Amino acid sequence: MVVQNAVETTGKYLRDFLKAESAGGIVLMVAAFLALVVANSSLSDWYLSTLATPVVFTVGGTGIEKSALLWINDGLMALFFFLVGLEVKREVLTGQLSSWKQASLPLFAAIGGMAIPALVFLGINWNEPENLAGWAIPAATDIAFALGILALLGSRVPVALKALLLAIAVIDDIGAIAIIALFYTPGVQTDMLLSAAVVFVALLLIGRARIGSRIPYVILGVILWYFVLKSGVHATLAGVALAMTIPLTDRNGEKVLEHMEHGLHPWVAFLVVPIFAFANAGVGLLDIEMSALLAPLPLGIALGLIVGKQVGIVGFAWIAEKTGIASLPEGISWMQIWGLSLIAGIGFTMSLFIGNLAFASPEQIAAVKLGVLSGSLVAALGGVFILRAASKPAA
Fold first, then answer.
1. Angle at 63 between CA 59 and CA 69, to 5 degrees
2. Of 13, 24, 88, which is closest to residue 277 (Cα–Cα)?
3. Coil, strand, or helix at residue 63?
4. Is the dihedral of CA 221, 224, 229, 235 positive or negative?
5. Is the dihedral of CA 68, 69, 73, 76 positive or negative?
6. Predicted TM-score of the model (pTM)
């Protein structure tokens, strides 16, 4: 009975998660479409000037001044990374990644899905040294967008395939977080980083004591974000660090982490990520010639997302299955894995985010947007086509 209740509870959380992410993915698509419309209309000057507007926040004589765009990318996205951290911790401790049997297939698929797209990008941009910093852009998968696309297919997509995509995307997020921390942190101020470490240790002690109140986590989390921002490490990583300190349960047995995760999901899915998409997806297309898509930077990103994800995910999953390291979930075919690999080629949110870290030049950022948008669009359309064909009843 206890095991049955645990399985039912886990299934409920998974269904709720997939539902929230799917709906959020649809809102994300709308926000990205609106950004493209506005950026290519008479409102484009207003759009760009609004994002460049300085916003100052001061407390006790100490303040932060950033453009509206950077407040979105450094501030709001910290909530997104906090949610990602909560999801990762829960999956590792109690979910899809809690045992080798469950984690082996998505682990191998995710490794291939990150490594091969990066190699495709590097191969195309090898003779363009100014572009090489963008190697990690096509390695990312946008789980909200991907699950939103799967939601449009309805019952054609089995829950097991959605769960596999979720597990791959979670591992992909772990990889993206590590990449940002290791490769996109240009310089570090030691005093601020030490201050952040002190706050982090305090949060760890509170979490270890299984304190259920949200107040200390919120207050110290904001302070942690400030110190990480000032240290030179990207501020969004403070969200991940904070998530690692949240206990699964408090002293009374209340599921603190899961309640935080479910409480934060609607805000991130329907506010934070759509705002990020609207602020970052706007690229002027009216003056762009088709030949621009063939430039090394956008082409490397697009082919990394389209070709690299397919080769990496399907290839590594096939090797894992043939060597006996992993096995396909029951009822899942290789054609469905192929369709999933294309859906995983929707990089969008994380790809755009890494692109903003990799480049400062407006021309390069515009090229990144072009590559991410075109690659994600082709991957989405291809994935839908393959999954619809894979789900047709046998003749």
1. 125
2. 24
3. strand
4. negative
5. positive
6. 0.78
